Amino acid sequence: MSDLPHCPMCHSAYTYEDGGLLVCPECAHEWSKEAAAAAESDELVVKDANGNRLADGDSVTVIKDLKVKGSSLVVKVGTKVKNIRLVEGDHDIDCKIDGIGPMKLKSEFVRKA
Question: What PANTHER family has UniProt attached to this entry (predicted)?
Fold first, then answer.
């Protein structure tokens, strides 16, 4: 029996190899073996503005003034945020900032402290 992954588009079990690609005969979707290996890991990879990998519990520093939506508060450059939590989505860092409260940040506006 083949140990090839199922198609990520239609979840068909009938995938086959064609050179360096994996192909689904039912929906004609093609993807690389590297993409299949990355999808199997199911690990959330979040990188900061400098390309360093972030993990739950890390401390980060804000690299740009960020306006807080719905208020007149601003998170200033250099604000250190401790004990972050990584989440799925556009704003991939969930944290609590002293003086402001709970927030979600984009990883592109922080660097690892």
Answer: PROTEIN YJDM, PROTEIN YJDM-RELATED
- Name all contacts of 79-83 with Cβ < 8 Å and 24+ positions apart: 80/113, 81/105, 81/110, 83/57, 83/59
Predicted TM-score (pTM) above 0.85:
no
pLDDT tens per residue across span 75-100: 999 999 999 999 988 999 999 999 99
Is 23 inside any structural domain?
yes
Q: Which residues lie below 8 Å from residue 40, measured CB to CB, with a gap of 6+?
A: 5
Alpha carbons 113 and 107: distance in angstroms, whole number: 13
80 token code pair: 């250190």
Domain residue limits at 13: 1-41
